[in-house]
Write a structure and sequence with these properties.
heterotetramer; A mainly alpha; B alpha+beta; C mainly alpha; D mainly alpha; A: mainly alpha; Cytochrome C Oxidase, Chain A; 16 helices; B: alpha+beta; Immunoglobulin-like; Cytochrome Bc1 Complex, Chain D, domain 2; five-stranded mixed beta sheet; 7 helices; about 20% strand
Chain lengths: ~525, ~300, ~100, ~200
């Protein structure tokens, strides 16, 4: 592995320069990463608080805390903020920005100014979104027509906000693809790339080519409301199901925009804390690309009961089962990496193991929804809600928290309190399962999603779910405080606290301004842990 | 509480079969993965800092194994799901047609025998029923958990589903596609009657079944109708405005209509508003209420008015 | 890796090539307008699309210099088209296979 | 790995190797063009579906469109593509003035396209044809409208590039922005090549 970088005590860290403008006008990928990190974390906390309010309303069957309309607004905001403002930019924009140049041995991304522009566009989107809060929409984050075309609430602003955000996503993806193609350090061949880079590459392709479709779809929805265009309006000869086709053409790949980077994070954390090479490197790398490609072909599995044709449903069901295969391969490879390792249960590793555990549940319950007959019963019930949260929180958010704990020392040059981090992990893990596991049963019993009030027969499980959300909320609060506290009073972080072989750990913490004193010369992959035998694989 | 709702249609058992098989396979893989995860995490936990680990980068046979086995299983599951789905989507030739219309936030059922009901679907045991479905305004989804059937209703196009009810009883109908403020109040019941009971219902006048209802005091009957015929989706009884005006204090109220004239909510005005809701719109409300002509009898309306009078 | 080879000087297309391509484009435009006045039934749209695609390919290859680009550029130029066909194809497949079975 | 060696020899990393910078910009631009294709993709998909659904409406409604104006605009845009291509070759050969002039011709053509489109739209409005008239005109206005927005963006971009060209910012060694502007303009042309037969020449 490369050890060309000399860690000297006298260097200028990327964090040293102070002042608002030095942040607002920065083109340093590490600083832009921090800007994204702050923004998405803020939206995560806001949307999470909204979720707690929703769960509080659902403690009892009647609508006694907020009115049904307010509840509908709440779940629309929760969904839109979580999906478009937190989880889609999420890991890809924050850790992607921070890590891609560091991991491939580059001083920055290919287009640093464009990178900053992407962030500004993201900010513009958030400003539009704030205005949208004045008369919030009640359509759900999916904006299904014809409801979204007819409701009195202001749908145009929120969709415009999402439309603008789309450009941020597209330009970030574009930047990363070019960076990974053109900026790799000498010797950093494709098969030596860290798996997080493969994951980011696959994600970037999805961002680049799926996002414009949701852009045009939302534009058409805006035109439907403002100009009377009727593509989705049956009264004008349009087809509401067409909206769903367009919407999910983006939004299914978007699910993978959310999860693939988290998979990349897990592939980085596990080898380091197992001191073992990643098992089946190529299979994991190519399965990222495989998942990305197949994800374009499965969108209508969100629509089996929506009135699409039986032929289409059958084809899409089949393709959906295909996407499960590369996912399964990854899980088995991670487990195999643990075998005969020297496993340290660092908080980041706990999040990674939690990811495997929860994501497996999320993935397996996805099989139910891919199977046509089962999906008919389960669609649009709490089973979907549970499945989606097992993938999004159990998967992506666990990966995000894992990444936060893993790269925290590198990014900020400080250490957090490890015991408190483990406590927070425990609360999050338990709270999450108590919140969402009962929802599988609710779904099987037929409890539909997006219900402000519900029949009394569901109350015991619904209340249990609400109690769980309090544990989950407490865990996240403790984690947030712990990480924030570390920033101010944490110990100084060493350069490479875990003994990682990846390039980013070979520079001081926090990294210097342009990452490397001298562009490194890469001679091996970054997973060369363990004792090599005579025969090298 | 049971794991899964009672299986009350011919399709339910078949769907449950798919659910069960996937559940068993899922449990197997989940137990396998989490057992290995925990076992490895405990067995290979770091005891010393300088532990040596082997340099294992992969194993082709193993990787082929765990690619091929899930692939085969998944394809089998696809086929199983598809076979049952095909049956769920193919109504038998001898089924009877019932048309269902979804409207914010009511279900209207039109029967092959000319009957019409609201929010209550009456079906005969062991006779296959095909629902011809249409929405008036936005998307809805017709969902009977006990029958394991679900299908969206679209404006401007018919969709369909079918089932044969097998067990006598009353089961929930949910709207499963988000349709606005009253979405969670868009509930209905499907009543499966024995052939004999069904014949009686078919011959009966009105939609309410039997003498027990008729003997209720008017205000209580009105409350029952308020809940069962979907009035509660739009009209609150606590003074809050959901979609339409609240029933609280409605009786005797005066105000201004859309056309500027004034009204007094006496018996006649209320009756006209139930039968021809769009004729005399009160200012500030949308003309969305369906007519209850043929659904509520004059006695029913009298009962509803009696109920309103109790809501001061 | 091909994307890393920039040793050869970049290709400069001559004015003459552009002019020939332009003449071709104009002829094809005239053809497509002319054909639209004839009635070939459904073939009309096929002819129109084939002609348009020839024009598009000519613009991409010569005006946009795709002919002289490396394989990665080709990949990213063609992949969106694959996705576009998937989007159109699968949506059409859904829309026009929606049977409504007749019972009884 | 030639690039690797080149990069190593550079002390100042922020002055990226011009070859790498050039090829990065070009790859980035092509990625962006792919995005644009997908953006129009939704409209093309909608077109395909509704044309198959309502062939009579398309046939009837398209007769309201002015075939001659469409054809003239097609010729204008193709010609502007030619002049843009010439401008790129000119700057690659270091002929700044010629490049600037041909960009100017391109811009004039783009403006001409806009003027023709303005008359077309006004004629439609005069006949009380609006985006909500029927699905065909919804498609017509959305497709040509989105295309028109791209033309305007292209004109602004080319305007800036033209000024910089005349100021002598580009030469045979560094002509990346001119080439990128050219690629964008050709894409605008390319999309119109499809829009013209789809909207104006329905069988």
């Amino acid at each position: 592995m490369a050890n060309h970088t000399i860690a000297t005590n006298v260097y200028v860290s990327f964090l040293d320069k102070k002042g608002f403008l030095s942040w607002f006008l920065t083109t340093d990928h590490k600083r832009i990463g921090i800007l994204y990190l702050i923004s998405i974390s803020l939206f995560f906390l806001i949307a999470g608080t909204i979720a707690l309010l929703m769960r509080f309303e659902l403690l009892t069957p009647a609508s006694d805390f907020v009115s049904p309309h307010t509840y509908n607004v709440l779940f629309t905001l929760h969904g839109s903020l979580m999906v478009f403002f937190f989880i889609v930019p999420g890991l890809a924009a924050s850790f992607g920005n921070f890590l891609i140049p560091l991991m491939i041995g580059a001083p920055d991304v290919s287009f640093p100014k464009l990178n900053l522009a992407s962030y500004w566009i993201y900010l513009l989107g958030t400003i539009i979104m704030l205005f949208a809060l004045l008369q919030p929409a009640d359509t759900g984050w999916t904006f299904y027509t014809p409801y979204s075309a007819n409701t009195d609430a202001d749908v145009i602003l929120i969709t415009l906000g999402v439309f603008v955000l789309g450009f941020s996503s597209i330009l970030t993806g574009l930047n990363f693809i070019v960076t990974i193609h053109k900026m790799r350090a000498p010797g950093m061949t494709w098969h030596r790339l860290p798996l997080f880079i493969w994951a980011s590459y696959a994600t970037a392709i999805l961002q680049l080519l799926a996002t414009p479709v949701v852009g045009i779809t939302l534009l058409l929805l805006i035109a439907e409301r403002s100009l009377g265009v009727g593509f989705f309006d049956p009264a004008k000869g349009g087809d509401p199901v067409l909206f769903q086709n367009f919407f999910w053409f983006y939004s299914h790949p978007a699910v993978y925009i959310m999860i693939i980077p988290a998979m990349g994070v897990i592939s980085e954390i596990i080898p380091v804390f197992s001191r073992k090479p990643i098992f089946g490197y190529k299979a994991i790398a190519y399965s990222s690309l495989g998942i990305a490609f197949i994800s374009f072909l499965v969108w209508a599995h969100h629509m089996f009961t929506s009135g699409i044709s039986e032929v289409a449903a059958t084809i899409f069901s089949f393709l959906t089962f295909l996407v499960a295969i590369p996912t399964a391969i990854k899980v088995f490879n991670w487990i195999a990496t643990l075998y005969k390792g020297s496993i340290e249960l660092h908080s980041a590793m706990l999040y990674a193991l939690g990811f495997i555990f929860l994501f497996t549940i999320g993935g397996l319950t996805g099989v139910f929804l891919g199977a046509l007959a089962a999906d008919i019963h389960l669609h649009d019930t709490y089973f979907i809600v549970a499945h989606m949260h097992y993938v999004m929180i159990g998967g992506t958010v666990m990966g995000f928290f894992g990444a936060l704990h893993f790269w925290y020392p590198k990014w900020f040059g400080k250490m957090f309190n490890e015991s408190v981090a483990k406590l927070a992990w425990f609360l999050i893990f338990v709270g999450f399962n108590v919140t969402f596991f009962p929802q599988f049963f609710l779904g099987v019993q037929g409890m539909p999603r997006r219900y402000a009030t519900y029949p009394e027969e569901f109350q015991s499980l619904m209340s249990l779910s609400t109690y769980g959300s309090w544990i989950l909320g407490l865990g996240i609060l403790i984690m947030t405080v712990n990480l924030l506290k570390g920033l101010f009073s944490g110990e100084k972080a060493p350069q490479n606290p875990y003994g990682s072989l990846s390039l980013e750990w070979q520079v001081p913490s926090p990294p210097p301004l342009e990452n490397f004193e001298e562009i490194p010369h890469v001679t091996d992959w970054s997973y060369g842990y363990g004792k090599k035998k005579e025969v090298d694989a | 509480m049971t794991w899964i709702p009672e299986a009350a249609s011919n399709l339910a058992g078949k769907v449950d079969g798919v659910l069960l098989v996937i559940t068993l396979i899922s449990i197997f893989f989940f137990v396998l993965i989490s057992a290995l995860l925990i076992y490895f995490a405990v067995k290979y936990r770091r005891r010393r800092e300088d532990e040596e680990t082997p340099y294992i980068t992969g194993s082709e046979p193993l990787e082929i194994l765990w690619t091929v086995i899930p692939s085969i299983l998944l394809i089998l599951l696809f086929v199983y799901g598809f076979v049952v789905y095909k049956e769920m989507r193919t109504p038998p030739k001898d089924s009877v047609d019932i048309t269902v219309t979804g409207k914010q936030w009511l279900w209207t059922f039109d029967y092959y025998n000319g009957k019409k009901t609201l929010n209550e679907l009456y079906v005969r045991q062991n006779i296959p029923v095909r629902m011809i479905m249409r929405a008036d305004d936005v998307l809805h989804s017709f969902f009977i958990p006990a029958f394991r059937v679900k299908q969206d209703l679209l404006p401007g196009r018919y969709t369909q589903l079918w089932f044969t009810p097998t067990k006598i009883g009353t089961y929930d109908i949910f709207c499963a596609e988000y349709c606005g403020t009253g979405h969670s109040a868009m509930l209905g019941k499907v009543v499966v009657l024995s052939p004999e009971a069904y014949d009686i219902w078919e011959k009966g006048i009105g939609v309410d079944d039997g003498a027990a209802v008729a003997s209720l005091p008017p205000a209580e009957l009105g409350e029952k109708i308020y809940k069962e015929k979907g009035c509660n989706a739009c009209h609150s009884i606590d003074g809050s405005i959901v979609i339409g005006p609240s029933f609280k204090g409605l009786y005797g109220r005066t105000g201004v209509l859309e056309d500027g004239s004034s009204y007094t909510a006496d018996e006649n005005y209320i009756m006209r508003s139930i039968l021809e809701p769009q004729e005399e719109m009160v200012q500030g409300f949308q003309p969305v209420m369906p007519s209850f002509k043929g659904i509520l009898s004059e006695d029913d309306i009298t009962a509803v008015i009696a109920y309103m009078k109790t809501l001061k | 890796m091909s994307e890393h080879t920039h040793s050869e000087a970049r290709h400069i297309t001559g004015y003459k090539t552009y002019f020939i391509v332009w003449v071709l484009l104009m002829i094809l435009t005239a053809t497509t307008v002319y054909v639209s006045y004839l009635d070939f039934g459904t073939l009309n749209i096929v002819i129109a699309m084939v002609v348009a695609s020839i024009k598009a390919v000519a613009v991409a290859l010569f005006f946009m210099h795709l002919k002289f680009e490396d394989s990665i550029t080709w990949l990213f130029a063609l992949f969106p088209l694959v996705l576009l066909f998937l989007l159109i194809g699968m949506t059409i497949l859904d829309t026009f296979t929606r049977f409504f079975p007749i019972a009884g | 790995m030639e690039k690797a060696n080149m990069e190593e020899s550079h002390g100042h990393i922020h002055h990226m190797d011009p070859e790498v910078e050039y090829s990065s910009s070009k790859l980035g631009m092509w990625l962006f063009l792919g995005t644009e294709i997908m953006l129009f993709g939704g409209l093309f998909a909608a077109y395909a579906i509704f044309r198959a659904k309502y062939p009579e409406m398309f046939l009837e409604s398209h007769q309201e469109l002015n075939r001659e104006m469409g054809a003239i605009n097609t010729c204008i845009l193709i010609f502007s593509s030619l002049t843009m291509a010439i401008a790129v070759t000119a700057i690659q050969k270091g002929k700044r003035k010629m490049a600037g002039l041909f960009i100017l011709v391109t811009i004039i053509c783009g403006l001409g396209f806009g003027v023709v489109k303005y008359f077309e739209y006004s004629a439609k409005f005069a006949h009380h044809i609006y985006p909500d008239t029927n699905i065909f005109f919804s498609l017509y206005f959305m497709m040509t409208g989105l295309h028109m927005i791209h033309v305007f963006i292209g004109l602004v971009v080319l305007g800036v590039i033209m000024v910089l060209t005349f100021k002598g910012k580009f030469n045979e060694k560094y002509s990346t922005p001119v080439e990128m502007g050219g690629l964008y303009w050709h894409l605008v042309d390319l999309i119109w090549i499809y829009l013209f037969p789809l909207l104006y020449l329905v069988g």
